[in-house]
Amino acid sequence: MGYPRKLTRRFRAFDNFAISFTIINIISGIFSAFGFGMGAGGPRILVFGWIGVSVMVLFVGAAMAEIASAYPTSGALYFSAGKLAKRHRGAWSWYTGWLNFVGQVGGTAATNYAAATFIQAYLAMQWPSYEASEQRTVGIAAVILLLQALANTYTVQLVALVNRISVWWLLIGMVVIVSSLVVIPSHHQPASFMTHFVNNTGFSNGMYAAMLGLLVTSWTFTGFDGSFHMSEETVKATVNAPKGIMRAIACSAITGLILMLALVYAIRDYAATASSSAPPVQVLIDALGMGTAKLLLLIVIGAMLFCGLANMTSNTRQIFAFSRDGAMPGSRWWHSVSSRTRTPVKAVWLAAACPMVLIVPGWWSHTAFTAIVSVNVVGLFLAYGVPIFLRLRLDDFEPGPWNLGRYGKPVAGVAVTWIVISSLLFMLPQVSPITAGSFNYAPIALGVVLLIATVWWFATARRRFHGPVSYGSPDEVAAMDLI
């Protein structure tokens, strides 16, 4: 790929799968967005929407996996965009890289903020006198970011080990939660309950509410580009990275559907649960009692912490690669690698500091925090879409060992179409009446990001950044390998 090797290849096939599976994180995603889905479509969209969106995400994953096999680098999306573009390679690479960076920073911030919120919910359940506050949420999130940065600072083996643990935590945790919701309650909803439709969005159009409900699944299925970003640390990356992407999506789709069905059928009082501060937690309390609910909530919190850690790991590698090509301020700092741990330590701490900057406004206003991180999913999916779109336009695409053959272009076409539709959904109003507190700030946040990137590009970047850098011929680069 034109780079001297600085990172150690110690990620096995399972490790590569583990990072994307952990970032997708069905427990974290479903528990974070379940309440929104109860009002935007209800059980019908929570269940059938999960199935439909999972299929669409598999198309996106397959198209990305084919590109990952051809360009297995830490730069991932922005690198492949620069290589696949026919013209203006620097610009395509620039915008893709910054969308990916901002999306990953927002994802790390949102996941750890959600973890801090659920930790406070647990503390309030354990000690009723405890009073949750926005200030305490920010403080807890800061501590989480610090611990995750410390974990990422040490060796790649430690990160791989933690990700292996996280996979089993998610799978065993899902089995425990589902088994408890199936076996313990004396009452479940009837089989027909999955067709029950609810529209509490405030909009009179049921179809519009149902489309919004698809966001529950779309929000969950983000971050599977983590396998792509870890390519330079994965053995046989041209095969194991694309397989990691596909396996993570497929396993998440199946296990997530099982968890979703268990939660839906365990609902007691639908209206009371939907109006509670944490609907999925209320489902656990009503169905299992306070004691069991508290134990299961610890599984949920653990899943969120693992998700945040994997998010930061993926973001670190994107920062490392983007800086290696000179696209970030202080690039010389961020692409340096520790001689002791063989990890990009400075990039790790930047990947921790940036989410903290996004979390701080939550000290004063949850709405302000939501406005800033709302670009998370939109930024990520647009970054996914750019290289897939460019591959669709390219007639002489040279695939890697893992490829879709003659189905490559049709799959890419479906993937791009879904990315456009889902991105539009994320930017539409989600609650009526529209107020300062309920307004969807995603279009504004995305507009600000693109405006800054555009001004920066035309002011200075276009003269010094021309896309992925080549350090020489394969033989020359091999001689530069530091490992």
TrEMBL record:
Q: Transmembrane: present as a keyword of the record?
A: yes
Q: Which residues form the signal peptide?
A: none
Alphabetically sorted, this entry's keywords are: Membrane, Transmembrane, Transmembrane helix, Transport
InterPro entries, alphabetized? AA/rel_permease1, Amino_acid_permease_CS
Q: Give compartment(s).
A: Membrane
Which GO terms of the cellular component aspect does the record hold?
A: membrane
Membrane topology, from the record: Multi-pass membrane protein
Gene Ontology terms describing biological process: amino acid transport
Which organism is the protein's source? Answer: Streptomyces lunaelactis
Q: What is this protein called?
A: Amino acid permease
Q: Molecular function (GO) terms listed?
A: transmembrane transporter activity
- Show the taxonomic lineage: Bacteria, Bacillati, Actinomycetota, Actinomycetes, Kitasatosporales
Highest taxon listed in the record's lineage: Bacteria
Q: Which Gene3D superfamilies match?
A: Amino acid/polyamine transporter I
